[in-house]
Amino acid sequence: MKSEEQQHPQYRKDREIVDNLLKEEDTDYNLAELARLKIRYRGFPGAKDIQEDLEKVLQKWELTEEKLYEKTRQIHRNGKVYKKHNNDQEDWF
User: For the chain, what is the largest distance between any 2 Cα atoms, rounded to a whole number of angstroms?
Assistant: First the structure.
């Protein structure tokens, strides 16, 4: 790891999520997770592997970042996608 790169405090947990996204389909929950992580790591000076893998997931699902956010805004308008996964904690940081 280069000295100017930072380790994100949520790296381990996020790495696991990204690994799952690489293997799974584009469900509403997975789309929401992808968008959340894209926002979290936007401009972050580190975790390049996660950032690259998030791009791979976008490509795999044939989405642009703009289309992803369009879809996830609709998903969130329709209901609480995270409640289905017993995730009461909002994890946006």
Answer: 43
Which amino acid is residue 1, in one-letter code? M
Instruction: Copy the structure tokens of residue 66.
Output: 């703009």
Give the domain range for residue 59: 11-83
DSSP 83: G
Residues 6+ apart with CB under 8 A from 57: 18, 21, 22, 34
Instruction: Find the mean pLDDT for residues 9-19.
Output: 97
Task: Report how many domains make up the chain.
Answer: 1
Q: Are 90 and 46 in contact (CB under 8 A)?
A: no
What SS3 class is residue 31?
helix
Q: Are 82 and 32 in contact (CB under 8 A)?
A: yes
Has this prediction a pTM greater than 0.85? no
